[in-house]
């Protein structure tokens, strides 16, 4: 169909667009700005990212350390001490014309203050009584066999085995035996000068409870190979001092 045979009058779709614009009723003519603004947007975004990264890195490298404040505090304290010394020197200079009434009083006060400081220092050394015990008395086996051997010589030996056995029984032990010298439970390897509690391997808790009952020192609660080899006994108490 030719243009002369077209039955309809011309309208806006028949008008040719600007030079270079696509021809067609479905395409809207595009301006020059619409083809440029995406590139400008990308340039602005990347420029902002670059500035932000540079700022972040520069701030991270300028992080101050803790040394300068310490140095400033030291300098401030030094200045304060210098001013104090200056004022003190001035006051000493002003009062240099007067003779002190009594210098011995100041020395006495200083001496008393030094002695007071020494006496006020508390002793931080812990007691060795509970720390050196080999076991926990709360975990003692109250059914274990305990033998009390009286090794005291002289008139003080009378009744000491029974008295000590009563102390052990009072602590809750049910199987307690008492022997007087010279009878001994077995041949003991060693000489004991103080009341000593010997125990078999694995009986440290029971021995600790027995030692507390008879008043034995923690250093005298000892593991015994002789007692470990005993088929029946768990703890022996060797009495060297009267009880009660």
UniProtKB/TrEMBL annotation:
InterPro entries in the record: LytR/CpsA/Psr_C
| Keywords from the named record | Membrane, Transmembrane, Transmembrane helix
Keyword rRNA-binding tagged? no
> Which regions span the lipid bilayer?
36-57
Q: Which Pfam families match?
A: LytR_C (PF13399)
Compositionally skewed regions (Gly residues) per UniProt: 81-94
Q: Which Gene3D superfamilies match?
A: 3.30.70.2390
The LytR/CpsA/Psr regulator C-terminal domain covers 154-225
Looking at the record, which segments are called Disordered? Answer: 1-23, 60-136
Acidic residues: compositionally biased ranges: 95-131
Bias (Low complexity) occurs at 71-80
The answer to keyword Transmembrane applying to this record is: yes
The name on file for this protein is: LytR cell envelope-related transcriptional attenuator
């Amino acid at each position: 169909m030719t243009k002369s045979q077209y039955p309809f009058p011309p309208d806006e779709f028949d008008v040719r667009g600007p030079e270079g614009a696509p021809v067609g009723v479905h395409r809207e003519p595009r301006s020059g700005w619409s083809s440029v603004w995406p590139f400008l947007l990308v340039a602005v975004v990347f420029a902002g990212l670059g500035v932000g990264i540079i700022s972040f890195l520069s701030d991270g490298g300028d992080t101050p350390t803790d040394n300068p404040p310490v140095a400033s505090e030291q300098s401030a304290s030094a200045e304060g001490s210098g001013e104090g010394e200056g004022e003190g020197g001035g006051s000493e200079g002003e009062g240099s014309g007067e003779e002190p009434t009594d210098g011995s009083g100041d020395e006495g006060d200083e001496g008393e203050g030094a002695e007071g400081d020494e006496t006020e220092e508390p002793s931080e050394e812990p007691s060795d009584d509970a720390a050196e015990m080999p076991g926990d008395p709360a975990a003692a086996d109250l059914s274990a066999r305990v033998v009390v051997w009286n090794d005291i010589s002289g008139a003080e030996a009378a009744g000491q085995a029974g008295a000590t056995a009563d102390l052990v029984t009072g602590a809750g032990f049910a199987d307690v035996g008492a022997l007087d010298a010279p009878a001994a439970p077995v041949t003991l390897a060693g000489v004991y000068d103080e009341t000593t509690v010997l125990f078999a391997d694995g009986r440290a808790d029971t021995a600790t409870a027995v030692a507390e009952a008879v008043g034995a020192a923690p250093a005298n609660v000892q593991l015994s190979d002789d007692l470990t080899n005993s088929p029946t006994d768990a703890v022996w108490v060797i009495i060297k001092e009267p009880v009660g």
